[in-house]
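2024-03-11 09:14:02 INFO queue: dequeued item Protein Wnt, len=152
2024-03-11 09:14:02 INFO validating residues
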Amino acid sequence: AVSTLADVACKCHGVSGSCSLKTCWLQLADFRKVGDLLKEKYDSAAAMKLNTRGKLVQVNNKFNSPTMNDLIYIDPSPDYCVHNESTGSLGTQGRLCNKTSEGMDGCELMCCGRGYDQFKTVQTERCHCKFHWCCYVKCKKCTEVVDQFACK
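2024-03-11 09:14:37 INFO prediction written
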């Protein structure tokens, strides 16, 4: 994924912007892009098993065979919902979740059907910031009571 998303970046060197010498290098892609691609591959990884001859075969033949660019697995992932020291999973109990999101951070999905608790917290942020000539920014501190949610 890292090498697939890498880009060639170049810089010209020369008098008055001429490109008499050009230096190019391979530049890593944005970390978020690499992470998103790996997550997409993880979510669509193909389950495999060893047949009697010791060869990897696909568990479910309804799907296309995996390519060299696909991820495969033999052992299923652990249950990330529950704490399990042997697999390194911390579980989701006590994790903050987003009540309105339908994504991975949403309470419905993250809390694995156990529900969630609602509580109030006080958040302090910088606000009403003003730039003063020259050269500093002066802000006030604003406090706000916000609802937060944590998995049971």
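2024-03-11 09:14:37 INFO annotate: The chain has a mean pLDDT of 92.
2024-03-11 09:14:38 INFO item closed
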